[in-house]
Amino acid sequence: MQPIGAHMSISGGLALAFGRGEAVGCTAMQIFTKNASQWRAKPISDEEAQAFRDAWQASPIGPVIAHDTYLINLAATDPENWAKSKAAFADELQRCALLGVTGLVMHPGNHLGAGDEAGIARIVEAFQEILTDAPPEVTILVENTAGQGTALGWSFEHLAAILEPLPKERFGICFDTCHALAAGYDLTSAAGYDQVMVDFDRLVGVERIHAFHVNDSKKGLASRVDRHEQLGDGALGLDGLRCLMQDERFKNVPKILETPKGDDDQADIRNIGVLRELAGEV
Question: Who is most buried in 20, 80, 144, 202, counting CB within 10 A?
Answer without folding.
Answer: 144
